[in-house]
Design a protein that fits this description.
26% strand, 220 residues
């Protein structure tokens, strides 16, 4: 799928997912993988042979759900502000930010299928989200709020993004990190704001509920 165009990507997503809601965010409709959809059942070997990146965009991960729930509960977090959903996956946090009155909402992803899914999910919920199909690490700060749902799951990823996110905080952005207990989250320079219990599945996580902490990232 790496060379597929937008229409091919959208057709693939429709064929591989079903429209569903998550328990934490009733009313929010997303194209998601589930037990009844082909991509849920596809093996990693099949995906690799088909040239498909791991379908992170097909799941509502706990970090993104927690951020979206926090915004829905306190829309003043984003109202009238410029918001970036960083490593946005299916874009659920961006969508709720748009629903909550953010002035501008952008969602950054490097997977073309994720970009297509973000656009489809935004349209499904009647909002506008601008998808950025590139690695935005290194970009100058033009956002008031940066949402980071579960981004510290690998050491190389954390090492790549954390200095830039701290620079964004130093430039005046409010950088919010939602973490369900990943090993590579920094232990310092975070101010906890809230904790959310997010239902999940044993296919995705090691338990049926994740406690997700949302924290503000400090510059240093």
């Amino acid at each position: 799928m790496s060379g597929a165009g937008p229409s091919d990507a959208e057709a693939f997503i429709r064929a591989q997912t079903a429209i569903a809601e998550t328990p934490l965010l009733p009313g929010l409709r997303l194209h998601l993988a589930s037990e009844i959809t082909p991509i849920w059942q596809a093996s990693e070997e099949f995906l690799r042979e088909a040239g498909i990146e791991p379908p992170f965009w097909a799941f509502a991960w706990p970090g993104g759900q927690a951020l979206a729930r926090a915004i829905r509960d306190a829309p003043a977090m984003v109202r009238g502000r410029r918001v970036l959903d960083f490593a946005a996956g299916c874009g659920l946090a961006a969508i709720v930010a748009a629903q909550s009155g953010a002035a501008v909402v952008e969602a950054a992803e490097i997977d073309p299928l994720a970009i297509a899914a973000i656009g489809m999910n935004a349209a499904l919920n009647g909002v506008t989200v601008t998808a950025l199909a590139r690695d935005v690490v290194g970009s100058p700060c033009r956002w008031d709020v940066i949402l980071c749902g579960d981004v510290c799951y690998e050491a190389p990823m954390t090492a790549h993004i954390l200095p830039w996110l701290r620079a964004m905080a130093a430039a005046g952005a409010e950088v919010l990190v939602a973490d369900p207990g990943r090993a590579y989250l920094p232990r310092e320079g975070l101010v906890p704001l809230s904790t959310h219990a997010v239902p999940t599945t044993l296919e995705l996580e090691d338990r049926t509920e994740k406690r997700v902490t949302i924290a503000r990232l400090l510059p240093h």
